[in-house]
Design goal:
- The radius of gyration of chain A is 22 Å and the shape is globular.
- Chain A folds into 2 domains: 23-142, no CATH class; 155-188 and 213-314, no CATH class.
- In chain A, 60% of the residues lie in helices and 1% in strands.
- Chain A has helices at 23-45, 47-70, 81-91, 99-114, 127-138, 140-143, 157-166, 174-177, 180-185, 197-209, 216-235, 243-248, 252-259, 270-290, 297-314; one strand spanning 10-11.
- Chain B is of the alpha/beta class.
- Chain C has 10 helices and 9 strands.
- In chain C, helix 2 (36-44) crosses helix 3 (58-68).
- The longest helix of chain C is centred in the first third of the chain and has 28 residues, at 2-29.
- The chains are: A mainly alpha (328), B alpha/beta (456), C alpha+beta (269).
- The interface between A and B is large, with 48 and 71 residues.
Chain lengths: 328, 456, 269
């Protein structure tokens, strides 16, 4: 025992095996899953897409590095979580946004929303979405100017519907202006990453296959939106959009697959995630239909973020061998 | 007799990398008894046994050398014949300090067993056989080491209607039970019949994972002409299928209440190796002096399933298997999910040592964890439906009330949460710490109340 | 114009008044009588809320003193004078409690006590102790992961560079929290006046102890003989100080293992 030349065995707690996953691998998977949507963004918006994504990722990584260094934490950025935040933020910005605003948003996301709350794992709100809302409130015009490159500013499909609805005119010709199939493929105006539902769906399926996300949140979110929209449409098909349009427009797919499933800010139990998805769907549609903004995904997710600790507190699985649920 | 599929599904299980191919096809080898064995006094759950021999005493093979102390304890026997060299102290394979009786082997295997063989057990009163099982020092050989004679004497009012024989062996790397079933199925079946006789004829369910078809076939053959309500249950290969609570749920659909025993739901689980030991004790009059150990892992030159004497040091096992192929990394008794890392190779194996796993240094992952990112993989993996991420965060934050309220004491330490954690957090260690601290706080509170009661 | 200003002011003012009225009524009718002495006793207590007395903080202890007649000298951080004041306030007799300080009964840091394997896990004593003793060969000695230091309300415990907990007797308020925190029961409260200590709890035989540590008690009994059994005794393979009689500092030189120390005893460099 006391022989100094004897080999030292490593002592650690069981289990001594690991499946091999890591936070970095998860983040890389998310980045891979965002590639199709990025490709569509480049195809639709050209250099602006590359500019915004590069700027956001670079400034998020720098901000993470700087903030961690200043706070005396291990300054590692090799988990790529900041890069994911950067890409997601860029995907939530209109393509023509000035570079400096994107930088500001990135720094806000990383420093204020993430690191000030304790860094990865401790933030209460989704950093990218918080930064988007921060920019939306600070620079409402820049954040809702969609296509200045051809000098004809058009609205997003949801924005067009909202304007028409507010003006009292029924969006009767909506379907003619925006064919459903082309909306789904990406032929619409909007933030960088939200234009093509197809590309986002591909990425989402990849994440599901890789078990980075689970089906509960996206399925319950999309199903609730569709179901609620169907009820509204059935009541009054003149002033309400059909459920398919609700699914195919705006940031719903981006939100459902990439933002609402953010692990840190969503509930941890299966049933909790279902409740979360339903809550998101209801809130999104309420904001879209009755709220002041044309799109409600960001706000719905941020509001439900705040509720997810509460959901976790009250919805707990029944422990093996215990009679009934008992919230702690 | 028929073979059925597991009738009930478990809520959460994992599919691991099993690594059983290294030893699954290797027949049992008998390892010659080493020159020196050290018999640990704690190879079972409960109070350590007390040595009843002194230094210099001559002992025979199978002679009792330590007696049980208290209600839950077991006999220990000499696994070689020879002389008591010393009685010393050290760490057992479970990492706890214990007393050892060191025996110098004279190589004669002079018989010293005091057990009376009872080949006529079928005509004997079942209850009269229980003391024989106690005297043979039989404990749960699957890993827990609970003394078998206590297990098969259910508390008053509890009726055992089903005996589940555990051949699941869900731990990766280990093939000891699998080989035992393939090669000694008759032995096991005879042991099962003795246990059935003692328990008054309950139903028999032999549970084997379906990734061991040869073992199922061997048991089917041995049990072909079995009478009564006997079935082989083919379980889906998943972890932790072999854990007592999960096994009972999967086979019977009954859930042991928190803090309860299998007897509370009318079930009894015995490992296949235990059944074989029962046969050897009752019919042959042999106490537990040897067991099957799988010695494997990337660091072992010649992995093998070996029949080794109790008290053989890990170093002797490794030497028998051709030694190590590289720099020492981690030495584990048991499987990689619930096994205990050893402080060195001079620790002797006990009755519960079903495997010895040597991992090279380069494959040993260093403790380097990140904060929990609430990915909920542990929640989806926990077979007890706990919230490991919430519990471990509460342990780190010293919130003992939360830890207790989240049923941390129900944790079976199966390791699923650690296995899937992408942040590589030491989940099981945190759960254990939480359990230890909750129990400590409870004890201190009780003592305080007792002291206050005295004052008042 | 006037209305736009006046109405909100009135509404807010009225609401405030109503709330105030409600509070006043509540305070009058829902008032719980509390012995005024509780507050006085609380103010005499140090307010560290260390819990060393066995109650959930100073206010709880004060209530116990006044209402349940708990002895006023349980508060170790209190000076003797403080306990006297409390006793005088309540008109009971104060038994002066001797000033106690916590002492870690191990002096085997990494330099002198061997580690026989690499521990790779939580840097926390309870966890390490459950895992074959956290790498330390000696299964009685200080693990050095600082559970005691973390619970100390006044920061009197340092684990230092050699992974050995050391209490600063000057800062210690003898609350006893570290005593409860140590999974190896290495810490005990000893009279502050006592200056000679045996810093070891290893109960193994001398041979084993020597293998594990350079400064462990090997049960040679030289100290017990030198002191002719006065003030210290053997407990199996371990010499233990009684703390009833003062010990001669000469014992420090008697111990061949340098296990006996005179305070203040810190870790050797």
């Amino acid at each position: 025992m006391a022989d100094p030349t004897a080999p030292l065995w490593m002592l650690s707690s069981s289990p001594h095996a690991h499946e091999g996953s890591s936070v970095r691998r998860i983040m890389i998977d998310v980045l891979i899953a965002l590639l199709p949507a990025f490709a569509v963004a480049v195809a639709v918006f050209g250099l602006d897409a590359i500019r915004l994504v590069t700027v956001c990722v670079a400034s998020c990584l720098l901000a993470e590095f700087g903030a961690r260094k200043l706070m005396g934490r291990n300054a590692g950025i090799d988990d790529f979580s900041a890069a994911v935040t950067g890409v997601l933020l860029a995907f939530n910005l209109p393509p023509a946004l000035p570079t400096w605003m994107a930088v500001l948003g990135s720094v806000f996301a990383i420093v204020v929303v993430k690191q000030l709350f304790g860094g990865i794992g401790y933030n209460i709100f989704n950093p990218a979405l918080c930064a988007r809302v921060f920019l939306l409130i600070s620079f409402p015009v820049a954040m809702t100017t969609w296509a200045p490159w051809d000098a004809v500013t058009t609205a997003t499909p949801l924005g067009a519907w909202k304007t028409a609805w507010a003006a009292g005119a029924a969006p009767a010709h909506f379907a003619a202006t925006y064919p459903l199939g082309s909306l789904f493929l990406g032929n619409q105006l909007g933030s960088l990453g939200e234009v093509s539902e197809l590309a986002l769906l591909l990425g989402g399926l990849y994440l599901l296959a890789r078990r980075v996300i689970y089906w509960e949140i996206p399925v319950f979110y999309l199903a609730t939106v569709a179901g609620f929209a169907a009820i509204l449409y059935a009541i009054d098909p003149v002033t309400n959009l059909s459920p398919l349009y609700h699914l195919a427009t705006g940031g719903l797919f981006l939100g459902a697959f990439f933002m609402a499933t953010d692990m840190v800010t969503s509930p941890v139990t299966r049933v909790g995630q279902m409740v979360y998805g339903v809550g998101l769907g209801l809130l999104t549609l309420v904001i879209r239909r009755w709220g002041g903004y044309p799109e409600g995904v960001s706000f719905a997710i941020l509001i439900l973020n705040a509720f997810s600790p509460l959901i976790d507190k009250f919805i707990q699985p029944r422990t093996f061998g215990h009679a009934k649920k008992k919230p702690a | 007799m028929k073979t059925i599929k597991a009738p009930f599904k478990l809520p959460n299980t994992l599919h691991l990398h099993y690594h059983k191919e290294a030893t699954a096809a290797l027949a049992l080898e008998v390892m010659p008894a080493p020159a020196v064995v050290q018999i640990p006094m704690s190879q079972h759950l409960g109070a350590p046994s007390r040595p009843i021999v002194a230094r210099g005493d001559s002992v025979g093979l199978g002679q009792p050398i330590a007696e049980p102390v208290g209600a839950v304890s077991a006999w220990a026997h000499a696994s070689v014949s020879g002389v008591v060299k010393s009685i010393g102290e050290g760490l057992s394979t479970s990492g706890r300090p214990t007393t050892f009786i060191e025996l110098e082997n004279d190589g004669l295997d002079r018989p010293g067993s005091t057990l009376q063989p009872r080949p006529d057990w079928a005509s004997a009163d079942g209850k009269s056989l229980i003391p024989l099982i106690a005297a043979a020092g039989i404990v749960g050989m699957g890993g827990a080491g609970f003394p078998t004679h206590i297990k098969i004497s259910p508390p008053a009012g509890r009726i055992i209607d089903t005996l589940i024989v555990n051949g699941a062996e869900c731990e990766p790397f280990l093939t000891a039970d699998q080989r035992l079933m393939m090669e000694k199925a008759d032995l096991i079946w005879n042991g099962i019949q003795i246990l059935r006789h003692i328990l008054g004829g309950p139903r028999i369910r032999v549970a084997i994972e379906d990734d061991k078809p040869e073992a199922i076939r061997a048991m089917e053959k041995a049990m072909a002409r079995a009478d009564g309500d006997v079935e082989i249950v083919s379980l889906p290969a998943a972890y932790p299928m072999g854990a007592e609570k999960q096994l009972i749920l999967s086979v019977l659909g009954r859930e042991i209440p928190s803090g309860g025993l299998p007897a509370d739901v009318g079930a009894l689980v015995e490992n296949v190796a235990t059944c074989a030991a029962v046969y050897e004790a009752i019919v042959l009059g042999q106490p537990v002096t040897q067991r099957v150990v799988t010695v494997t892992g990337p660091l072992i030159r010649r992995p093998a399933n070996i029949l080794a004497r109790i008290g053989t040091t890990l170093a002797d096992l490794i030497a028998f298997c051709g030694g190590l192929t590289g720099q020492s990394g981690k030495l584990i008794c048991g499987g990689p999910m619930m096994g205990v890392a050893q402080i060195g190779a001079d620790v002797p194996m006990g009755k519960t040592t079903s495997g010895l796993l040597a991992l090279p240094r380069e494959s040993v992952r260093l403790f380097d964890s990140m904060p929990c990112i609430s990915c909920n993989r542990c929640v989806r993996a926990c077979p007890m439906s706990l919230l490991p991420c919430t519990i471990t965060s509460a342990v780190e934050a010293d919130q003992l009330e939360t830890v207790e309220a989240l049923h941390t004491l129900d944790c079976i330490e199966c390791g699923c949460c650690s296995y899937v954690c992408p942040s590589r957090r030491p989940m099981v260690q945190l759960m254990r710490q939480g359990k230890a601290r909750v129990q400590l706080a409870r004890r201190q509170k009780q003592e305080q109340e007792k002291a206050k009661g005295k004052q008042g | 114009m006037l209305n736009t200003l006046l109405v909100p002011v009135l509404v807010i003012g009225l609401a405030g008044f109503l709330c105030g009225l409600l509070l006043a009524i509540a305070a009058r009718f829902l008032h719980v009588f509390e012995d005024p002495r509780i507050e006085k006793v609380t103010s005499l207590l140090p307010g560290a809320n260390c819990g060393g007395c066995g109650y959930a903080g100073c206010a709880d202890y004060a209530r116990a003193i006044v209402e349940k007649g708990a002895p006023p000298n349980l508060c170790r951080p209190c000076s003797a004078a403080g306990a006297r004041d409390i006793a005088a306030l309540l008109g009971v007799e104060a038994k002066a409690a001797e000033k106690m300080v916590a002492l870690v009964l191990c002096n085997g840091g990494d330099v002198r006590s061997r580690r026989s394997f690499l521990y790779n896990g939580l840097a926390e004593c309870v966890s390490a102790d459950m895992l074959s003793g956290g790498g330390k060969t000696c299964r009685y000695g200080c693990l050095g992961y600082g559970n005691c230091a973390r619970v100390c309300p006044v920061g009197a415990i340092q684990t230092g560079a050699h992974n050995l907990a050391v209490v600063d007797p000057g800062r210690c308020i003898s609350c006893g929290l570290c005593v409860k925190a140590c999974p190896r029961n290495l810490i005990r409260l000893v009279p502050a006046s006592h200056s000679v200590h045996i810093l070891c709890r290893n109960r193994d035989r001398g041979v084993m102890t020597r293998k594990a540590c350079d400064v462990g008690c090997i049960a040679c009994q030289k100290c017990v003989k030198a002191a002719t059994g006065q003030g210290l005794h053997m407990e199996g393979n371990l010499a233990v100080v009684d703390y009833t009689l003062p010990l001669s500092p000469e014992l420090v030189g008697v111990c061949p293992q340098k296990t006996i120390h005179q305070r203040p005893a810190g870790p050797l460099p």
